[in-house]
Amino acid sequence: AHCVGGSEEEALRAADEALDLYLETKNKRMAAYEWLTMAGWHLTSGKADKALSDAEDAMEIYQALKSPKELDAMQVLFKAHVAEGKPNRARRMAKDALSRFETAGDRKAEAITLELLFQAYHSSGRFREALSASERALLIVQDLGDKALECKQLTSMATLQFSMGELDKAMVLGEDALALVKDLGTTEDKIQVMQTLSNVHLQKKDFQMATAVVSEMQKHFQATGDSKGDASSLMTLCAIAYGQKEFDRALKAAQTAQGIFQEAGDTKKEGEALRWIC
Fold first, then answer.
1. pLDDT digit string (tens) for 145-164?
2. Torsion of CA 22, 26, 29, 32, to 10 degrees
3. Cβ count near 107 (within 10 Å)
4. Model-level pTM?
5. Domains in the chain and their CATH numbers?
6. For the residues 183-199, what does the mean pLDDT come to?
């Protein structure tokens, strides 16, 4: 079942029907697929408890089948634990998975799990442990030659170094990430690199460079039709202009971003833009 057209409710109903059929016919692989699909939908719509239950069912089957899809289920399960306010459980689950992947010699899965551990440690303020996890992951993905995962690790490490007050290290890592992110990164990666580098420049009181970094990324977002990235860059430009007391420029950026968020139906982000406007 796929959510293509129609409402999410209709898609979930179709997925439930498909799940019942796969369970009746004992098709475990397809049942796990439906559970994982529904878990992703529940997570996106803020229903962490349902996402958690479905992801656990999917992961149990994938582990029994020794399927590479176990990694996908684990990532959804990790996010569901975090969304439920249980970061310690998310971290323990990731550590257990890391041991399994190390034993199996699955280095790509090992690197992705280390990234999850990085997120758990970083969000808990355990920066040294976060740095250790990220450095291990970076060495693995560089050895594998996986540029997309390398881009993600450089992005994570740049953000961490900024959090630790290591501005020069954050700058170098951020620039390395920027060289890869336009071609290989997700929208979230691109926004993170943009914001980290602009924050570094702002900490150094270099408003011109902060604006230049964000403006460059905005051009990229517009050229690729990425409205989410475009709106995020506008909100970052708004904050920079406000910090320079250029209130008219800040207002214009926030109003343009608000319009984009409204058109996309992103009420949360639209609300953030409206708070700047008010």
1. 999 999 999 999 999 999 99
2. 60
3. 15
4. 0.83
5. 206-278 (1.25.40)
6. 95
